[in-house]
Amino acid sequence: xxxxxxxxxxxxxxxxxxxxxxxxxxxxxxxxxxxxxxxxxxxxxxxxxxxxxxxxxxxxxxxxxxxxxxxxxxxxxxxxxxxxxxxxxxxxxxxxxxxxxxxxxxxxxxxxxxxxxxxxxxxxxxxxxxxxxxxxxxxxxxxxxxxxxxxxxxxxxxxxxxxxxxxxxxxxxxxxxxxxxxxxxxxxxxxxxxxxxxxxxxxxxxxxxxxxxxxxxxxxxxxxxxxxxxxxxxxxxxxxxxxxxxxxxxxxxxxx
Amino acid sequence: xxxxxxxxxxxxxxxxxxxxxxxxxxxxxxxxxxxxxxxxxxxxxxxxxxxxxxxxxxxxxxxxxxxxxxxxxxxxxxxxxxxxxxxxxxxxxxxxxxxxxxxxxxxxxxxxxxxxxxxxxxxxxxxxxxxxxxxxxxxxxxxxxxxxxxxxxxxxxxxxxxxxxxxxxxxxxxxxxxxxxxxxxxxxxxxxxxxxxxxxxxxxxxxxxxxxxxxxxxxxxxxxxxxxxxxxxxxxxxxxxxxxxxxxxxxxxxxxxxxxxxxxxxxxxxxxxxxxxxxxxxxxxxxxxxxxxxxxxxxxxxxxxxxxxxxxxxxxxxxxxxxxxxxxxxxxxxxxxxxxxxxxxxxxxxxxxxxxxxxxxxxxxxxxxxxxxxxxxxxxxxxxxxxxxxxxx
Lengths: 256, 393
Prior knowledge:
The complex is a heterodimer of chains A (about 260) and B (about 400).
Chain A: H1 3-8, E1 14-20, H2 29-38, E2 43-48, H3 58-70, H4 74-80, E3 92-96, H5 98-104, H6 106-116, E4 120-122, H7 128-141, E5 145-146, E6 148-150, H8 156-165, E7 170-173, H9 187-197, E8 205-208, H10 214-222, E9 226-229, H11 231-240, H12 246-253
Parallel strand pairs in A: 1-2, 1-9, 2-3, 3-4, 4-5, 6-7, 7-8, 8-9
Chain B: E1 10-11, E2 14-15, H1 24-39, H2 41-55, E3 61-63, H3 65-71, E4 74-79, H4 89-102, E5 107-112, H5 116-128, E6 131-137, H6 138-143, H7 145-153, E7 157-161, H8 168-181, E8 186-189, H9 199-207, H10 209-222, E9 229-233, H11 238-244, E10 254-262, H12 273-276, E11 278-282, E12 285-289, H13 314-321, E13 325-331, H14 332-346, H15 352-358, E14 371-376, H16 384-391
Parallel strand pairs in B: 4-14, 5-6, 5-8, 6-7, 9-10, 9-14, 10-13
Antiparallel strand pairs in B: 1-2, 3-4, 11-12
Helix pairs in contact in B: 2-4, 4-5, 4-9, 5-7, 9-11, 10-11, 14-15
């Protein structure tokens, strides 16, 4: 079984953190991952930076630009992660836009992910139909789960379709927005979270976009298996660096 | 070979809709409806009427006598520069605003490079009374000031794109982000033959009026519908798409696409995508684009804001790959000289984009009997400052 699948079976709400590889400094990648795990984070999304991140707001855009400037790219990232499984056991997901992966070569990219011990991929601009038609076989051959995004506008039929070919979790985008563009959830989002929860999908849902603190984490995980924090974490490491992450994670994971 | 889009949204190996899920409902709504709407008699009637009474179509097909004499061939200029707002861009914005109305949208966004598409969008928004936000790279805002002022006067809000190279590519990113954040009420009027399917096809169809008219007009003056050559400049590719459209499947008509070489194709400051680009995905479409070996999109350069784009529409990528069109790249210097030459030989000051197409006569020889159509895509008013600086006028 894939590490993501095992993690999803744990009887707890999951905290997943997104960060941009090579940010703030080029060689921060591995220590960020290790420190997140030791501070109780359940799953990590490692962002492969791209020059033109369409779905991202200013915070992640800026971190991507900086990371590229630092010299990050697919090969450098794979090199930084080559021994990561000696120290880290939680699920690791690579999140990146399609073009850099396409240029690396889909098959070669998947092979490298398997060697390192990557468990899944999130490629926001790879549509589910194209994935199913052209890439599903190679992803699955290398033991990689492809994670699909849904939004409040995604039709029920389409959600069921994605659910039928997903083997991990469904990434629920909390509202129609780019990353980092909202604070707090209103009734509209709560209704949407409930609506999806009531669909009884095969795959659990993890909510992303708009989660920034304990309050929003709790709101989101009331109706979902877990939540993903991205922009808020990037802001934190921009100001504080990657060595003391406890200050960031502890308040979120604090038991009542 | 077929040069039009197939039912899956591809031109050969290029095209498709590589978009984040957040955009799926919008793009799918458009894909599902665009051909149906365009085929409605009411829509056609309204579109044709506006092209005639508001845009000023048909635009003339003008025999450029002195230019022809100089290069010893027969050169006709398809005068899109005489369209209302000064370029071919308005053909598409008229079509898309009518489309947006039928899809019950209340807010319009657009990207713009030279500002021609921004002006054309602001114009049609004023025409129908819709809110309009235009994204424009900060660099382009500085070099196309008159068009920024025009957009504002027309009631549009111009928002600067501050990321990346701060030109057309980045303005497009910002417009896409706006669309992600406003998924229900907003229609995105893309100005070029780029973006996810169905945009390249929809834009090409709205622009196809150019070659439709050319056929009729040429028949009248030359006794034949088909010229020997059709020449157009290509940034994203909308004016070329329109100028070629009804000739795509006429093998006797040679198509020439002129790209911006900037300071030279090998100079590192260029926008000649067919030479410098590789297959990849940009702005929702699989096409040729300028990128690093790692797949990061590189920042292009051209003196002309409208050609300063690192990709090319999927239709054009296919025309290149299949060798249906010949691609030529023209430097800033040659384009500027050609712009000055047309001004002084024919009394027409062309847009710098268009000047690239006019520059091919310096290097490419045509026969005296050849009929060469040049898509005179826009007028040079917006570029006066650049011309003034360049020629120290």
